[in-house]
From TrEMBL:
It is a multi-pass membrane protein. The keyword Membrane applies. It holds the Pfam family Plug. It comes from Pedobacter duraquae. This is TonB-linked SusC/RagA family outer membrane protein. SUPFAM superfamilies: Carboxypeptidase regulatory domain-like, Porins. The keyword Transport applies. InterPro entries: Beta-barrel_TonB_sf, CarboxyPept-like_regulatory, Plug_dom, Plug_dom_sf, TonB-dep_OMP_SusC/RagA, TonB-dep_OMP_SusC/RagA_CS, TonB-dep_rcpt-like. Keywords: Cell outer membrane, Membrane, Signal, Transmembrane, Transmembrane beta strand, Transport.
Length: 998
């Protein structure tokens, strides 16, 4: 083609082509060398990948987002600026250089924390807009702690939330109390909501929620925050949000730990020599002649052979705990998913105690259209508590010379034969014990966003269903000292549903912001149970598997239904992010109330907030960065009555009549159809602050609760056939102060030190009981005093030889406990010589967390304290039982030689029933965690997205004056309770691993 053109024209075209190539080539070459993909990983200060970080190229305006592993990719050229932003973290700018990989750490920004979104119930809100008392559990408490229940992570870490581990039985749940006790007889536990749907009142518990699946925990404490839950909010609300999917390719994470459990403190029984000496001292003090060195003939062979049995060692073992969790998350802009599976296996420190949990969770969010989003939160949890158990109570009481085994290798029934007060503490291991629960929970939602002039209006439908079957069974046979054989089977199921219709509207008009929420909901729970039992089996071969083979059969069944309908409205208004107002009202109707009164109650609240730091006169303040004042007042309710307690019911009784077993009817519950809600009115004032560039931040809150209409049993003349009837007659008052303080003590390049302090004090008292101005001595309820107190004699020492007892306690002898004669009548009696010795709940609690960071190493030390509580001490009041019990060496006893002022003589009979009130205050090194976050360069070689290893210890040491196993735990003495809960506090050491794959 070119050859046909004239030569001059061909030369001209060639010159033009060369010129174009010369001009374009450098541009192409520059583009090829300067434009590149920048990749890297974004971590927080603890080395954990941050998903959802926005990366923007300020030159080209292109943007990207980090995935679930914190990894990102964005096109940029040398000399261009990349800006990294994420809520709650300081903005960071990076100038692109030669390297194509940019890894960085984002520092938390206290100013931006105010803009982070927190869950407040039926919605979310910016922290700076919150007017009620809403506190978030520190994220550091939600991971890298070897806990089986999330309440164990909260213990001591949140001001105003008192979590007590009264038993360390594997799989047991701690008790939680938010802002003290308002009711005397009704439950005081908080209401628990998971992913917007109630967990409380469905049969399940927090044991069914795997801590690894939890993304955040918020606690609602005042009426402004809890009134939105009406009758369920009177004792506070715990809101749990589980992890959801994120945009990006699938991310696989594994979290696991394994470790050992040991008894945190051992109340060591006396040795063989101490046991023999105690028996000799007992005989001497009681004036008896000693015929042999040990109390029982069957103990002599072991004594003569110098052989002892350490019963505590025989009943205990090395505890082992392991937990493995695998999660997969990811998705696109329209579909996001999170799937996890968990396996927990805990072998207790006392033989036979075990807990196994298997859990599956699936969370799904789908943007069906631009205006419709649907999602699910499904989980299944199977809890297994099977196993016969050793008896710690008997193990600590047994003679060291008792015989553990028979000649054929079976357990001796009576190791101290002919003594039959004590059976072998290991007999429970020969029994069949079944205890299992399953929680099948399915929640779904659909959310519609309205467009156009209705922008800001959303409708959400929440629906939840729970099926909670429970199975228990037991068989006691000949090896367990049951010569007839006894079988029992128990099956129960709870079916619950919740339907919530939620309408929200949010609108910004210049400096005005309005947020309105309306709710209509319905809940229903159906419960049924059946029992079967039998006594008298030919042998123990079939046991629980053939109850019909028993000679005497028993059976029973029960069912009930509970329902509640609710309507709620909440209006939030903010002007210029300075002046805040929240108005809430909820109306609940409950099926538990009778026909003679309305089943509905209305629970309103109001709160105002003032962001002082947003005022113009505070804008240039270099000292104060954040200052907000909050005030709230409102009313909440408490049903406080069980199903069918408002109606009169009868019971049945079998009696022989003319040689025939006849069923008769007898008086059961006397119903009161006029019963109404217990009502709590709450006032709260709070101040949130941040100073010195937020190096110091926190909050101070004070509150007062007044509860009326308490449900108490009013006594009736027995001639009516009933001894009492429930009535709304009591009143209580409850007030307290809470302080939370966060400080950044040192912030260097490689080393940082942070501290968190929480403090809370609470005082409750009974202001009225039955309207007659009198105390209830039988129940230990006193006007003007705390709800739960210790009322007993005031011990002042022990009577010694030569002391004159005639003017104070004429019946006392040397070695008897000495009590104060409070009424001065010259004798110790229950009429006038008892007094309130203290309250069973702490007067104040606190927590101190110090966290140290050095490069990739992190160390967290948490100390918890509870002060000012008094408890009866069962280890001291547990009698010597005529010299036959092997009392703990730490407790001791009085002799004329040692002249003890704290312990009585072995001959002392506690006829007054003194319960040995003791100071139960303690300070505990609750947990210490050391972790190491592997650097990105190592992760690249290992082809991993993230890797953290850690070692953690819990309940490392307790500082206390308590004499016994542990001041926090509750223990039962013989015949006074369930011995299976006699399980002391354990000390745990684990090694853990958190790893994510690319």
């Amino acid at each position: 083609m070119l050859k046909k053109l004239p030569l001059p024209l061909r030369c001209m075209l060639v010159l033009i082509a060369v010129a174009l190539i010369a001009t374009i080539s450098p541009i192409i070459l520059y583009a090829q060398t300067a434009t590149k993909d920048i990749t890297g990983v974004i971590l927080d200060s603890k080395g954990t990948p941050i998903p959802g970080v926005t990366i923007k190229n300020e030159t080209t305006a292109k943007a990207a987002m980090s995935d679930g592993n914190g990894r990102y990719k964005i096109a940029a050229s040398k000399g261009e600026t990349l800006v990294y932003t994420f809520i709650g973290y300081a903005r960071k700018s990076i100038l692109v250089g030669e390297s194509a990989q940019v890894n960085l750490t984002l520092a938390e920004d206290a100013d931006k924390v105010l803009n982070e979104v927190v869950v407040i119930g039926y919605g979310t809100q910016k922290r700076s807009d919150v007017t009620g008392s809403v506190v978030s559990v520190p994220k550091s408490r939600l991971s890298q702690l070897p806990v089986t229940n999330i309440l164990q992570s909260i213990e001591g870490a949140v001001a105003g939330v008192n979590v007590a581990t009264t038993s360390s039985v594997p799989g047991s749940q701690p008790n939680a109390l938010i802002r003290g006790q308002n009711s005397i007889t009704a439950g005081s536990g908080p209401y628990v909501v998971v992913d917007g749907v109630p967990l409380s009142k469905t049969g399940g518990s927090l044991n069914d929620i795997n801590p690894n699946d939890i993304a955040s925990v918020e606690i609602l404490k005042d009426a402004s925050a809890t009134a939105i839950y009406g009758t369920n909010g009177s004792n506070g609300v715990i809101l749990i949000t589980t992890k959801r999917g994120t945009t990006g390719k699938p991310v696989i994470r594994y979290s696991g730990y394994a470790g050992i459990d040991n008894l945190a403190h051992i109340l060591q029984p006396s040795s063989g020599a101490e046991y023999v000496q105690k028996y000799a001292d007992f005989l001497k003090q009681t004036g008896q002649v000693q015929q042999r060195p040990v109390p029982n003939i069957n103990e002599l062979p072991a004594y003569n052979a110098g052989k002892t049995t350490d019963w505590l060692a025989e009943a205990t073992q090395q505890g082992v705990i392991q937990d493995h969790n695998v999660g997969i998350s990811g998705g696109s802009e329209d579909v996001k998913y999170f799937i996890s599976g968990d396996y927990l296996n805990q072998k207790g420190v006392i033989k036979g105690y075990e807990f196994k949990r298997i859990g599956l969770r699936s969370n799904l969010d789908v943007n069906v259209t631009s205006f419709l989003t649907v999602g699910t939160s499904l989980f299944l949890t199977s809890n297994n508590y099977d196993g016969g158990r050793a008896n710690l109570l008997l193990a600590t009481a047994m003679s060291p010379y008792g015989q553990e085994y028979n000649a054929n290798g079976t357990y001796t029934i009576y190791p101290m034969n002919p003594e039959q007060l004590y059976t072998n503490p290991l007999l429970g291991l020969t029994t069949t014990q079944i205890s299992r629960t399953t929680n099948i929970n399915g929640n779904g939602y659909a959310e519609v966003k309205f467009p156009g002039v209705l922008t800001g209006l959303k409708f959400r439908l929440n629906a939840g269903y729970t099926y909670f079957p429970k199975r228990e069974g037991s068989y006691y046979g000949r090896l367990a000292n049951d010569l007839n054989g006894t079988a029992r089977s128990f099956n129960a199921s709870t079916n619950s549903y919740t339907v919530e219709n939620i309408l929200t509207y949010a609108k910004d008009i210049e400096k005005h912001h309005i947020d309105f929420t309306a709710l209509y909901s319905a809940q229903e729970r159906k419960y049924n149970e059946t029992t079967a039992g039998a006594i008298g089996f030919i042998n123990d071969e079939l046991g629980l598997d053939n109850i019909g083979a028993g000679a005497t059969q028993t059976s029973g069944s029960y069912r009930d239904r509970y329902g509640i309908n609710s309507q709620m409205g909440r209006l939030f208004y903010a002007y210029d992010s300075r002046y805040l107002l929240t108005l809430t009202a909820r109306r609940d109707g409950s099926s538990v109330f009778g026909a003679s009164t309305t089943k509905y109650g209305v629970f309103p609240s109001a709160a105002v907030g003032w962001n002082i730091s947003n005022e113009s006169f505070m804008k240039n303040s270099k000292l104060v960065n954040n200052l907000k004042l909050r005030l709230s007042y409102g009313k909440t309710g408490n049903e406080a009555v069980g199903v069918y307690r408002t109606i009169t019911t009868d019971g049945t009784s079998r009696s022989p009549f003319n040689g025939i077993s006849t069923i008769g009817v007898l008086a059961g519950n006397l119903g009161n159809s006029n019963l109404q809600w217990e009502t709590t009115k709450t006032a709260n004032i709070g101040l949130d602050f941040g100073v010195l560039n937020n190096r110091i931040s926190g909050s101070v809150e004070a509150y007062q609760n007044k509860t009326s209409g308490l449900l108490l049993n009013r006594s009736l003349p027995i001639i009516t056939g009933y001894s009492n009837v429930l009535d709304n007659i009591g009143k209580t008052s409850n007030k307290g102060l809470e302080v939370t303080l966060n400080t950044q003590n040192f912030a260097g390049k490689d080393f940082r030190w942070e501290t968190m302090v929480v403090f809370a004090t609470n005082r409750n008292k009974i202001t009225d009981l039955y309207g007659d101005g009198k105390d209830d001595l039988g129940n230990r309820w006193f006007l003007g005093k705390p709800i739960s107190v210790v009322y007993d004699y005031k011990m002042t020492g022990v009577w010694q030889n030569g002391e004159d007892v005639s003017k104070q306690d004429p019946t006392a002898k040397p070695g008897s406990l000495k009590f104060a004669d409070l009424n001065g009548d010259g004798k110790i009696t229950g009429d006038g010589d008892r007094m309130i010795l203290g309250q069973t709940t702490p007067k104040w609690t606190g927590g101190l967390t110090n966290t140290f960071h050095y490069k990739n190493i992190n160390l967290s030390i948490f100390i918890q304290t509870a002060q000012g509580m008094t408890k009866n001490n069962p280890d001291l009041s547990y009698g010597d039982e005529t010299g036959r019990r092997n009392t703990p060496a730490e407790i001791g006893y009085w002799t004329p030689e040692n002249r003890s002022q704290t312990r009585p003589a072995l001959s002392y009979n506690n006829t007054l029933g003194y319960a040995y009130a003791s100071d139960a205050s303690y300070t505990r090194i609750k947990d210490v965690t050391l972790s190491y976050v592997f650097a990105q360069s190592v992760l690249e070689r290992l082809h991993l997205g993230g890797l953290t290893v850690y070692a953690s210890g819990r309940n490392l040491h307790t500082f206390t004056n308590w004499v016994g196993w542990d001041p926090e735990n509750n223990y039962s003495t013989r015949g006074s309770g369930d011995w299976t809960n006699n399980y002391p506090l354990t000390r745990t050491f684990v090694l853990g691993l958190n790893v994510s794959l690319r």
